[in-house]
Amino acid sequence: MGKSGTGKSSLCNAIFQSRICATHPLNGCTRQAHHLTLQIGERRMTLVDLPGIGETPQHDQEYRTLYRQLLPELDLIIWILRADERAYAADITMHQFLLNEGADPSRFLFVLSHADRVFPAEEWNATEKCP
Predict the structure, then answer these.
(1) Closest CA to 78 of 54, 101, 49, 102
(2) Are 89 and 56 in contact (CB under 8 A)?
(3) 85, 2 Cβ separation under 8 angstroms
(4) In the chain, what are the domain boundaries?
(5) Which of 88, 69, 74, 61 lies closest to 2, judged by CA?
(6) Which of 50-59, 81-90, 98-107 has the highest mean pLDDT?
(7) Higher per-residue pLDDT: 21 or 66
(8) Distance between CA atoms of 100 and 38, rounded to whole angstroms?
(9) Three-state SS for 7?
């Protein structure tokens, strides 16, 4: 889960080491849930690539309905956040919506994408290891 363009489909492609999910640098490609099953030996895991929020209020309303329907079957929610972005209002709103719908807060794993696009901070204090 996460906003459109954060790299949700790209993460699925990286995990499966194949281009199984469509991606585009400018336009959102995922409009419905895309179930992907990975099997290693006897173990099987299903990832669900979901459409991203934040494009339009109409899409967000549709996706709330989709997320609500899928919530009971999700063991873990991987939420992708762009490291090079500071606008997280849509993420916060949807996260709160999911919590209000009964999502267990311990089932969220927040992942940063696009970390290679973050400029080094000039104010970094090397001694204290903090900004």
Answers:
(1) 49
(2) no
(3) no
(4) 8-117
(5) 88
(6) 98-107
(7) 66
(8) 30
(9) coil
Structural tokens at position 74: 């999700």
**What's the CA dihedral at 77, 101, 33, 114 to 10 degrees?**
-40
Residue 53 and residue 63 in contact, taking contact as beta carbons nearer than 8 Å:
yes
**How confident is the model over 27-68, as pLDDT tens digits?**
655 667 878 888 889 998 888 888 888 888 999 899 999 999
How far, rounded to the nearest angstrom, does the alpha carbon of residue 124 sit from its chain's CA centroid?
Answer: 28
- CATH superfamily entry for domain 8-117: P-loop containing nucleotide triphosphate hydrolases (3.40.50.300)
Specify the pTM.
0.75
CB 8 within 8 A of CB 30: yes
Provide the pairing of β-strand 77-82 with 108-113: parallel
